[in-house]
Prior knowledge:
Layout: H1 2-9, H2 14-21, H3 25-33, E1 40-45, E2 48-53, H4 55-62
Antiparallel strand pairs: 1-2
Helix pairs in contact: 2-3
Amino acid sequence: MELKQEQETLNIRVSDAAKVLGKSEQFVRVGLQRNLLPIGTAVKLSSRWTYHISPKKLRDYVGG
């Protein structure tokens, strides 16, 4: 259980990143898929995408 809590702090949800950026979730997803947003990565597994958004990279990107 403790490991799960640690992992949650290492990854920001797409919905939370969208709120911080003032953009839609789709904007964040496409930005990550096309390597246009320097806040994390998008990986296609089979036919689905999975996202990792770094709290530090997001903070640095928004300037705070």
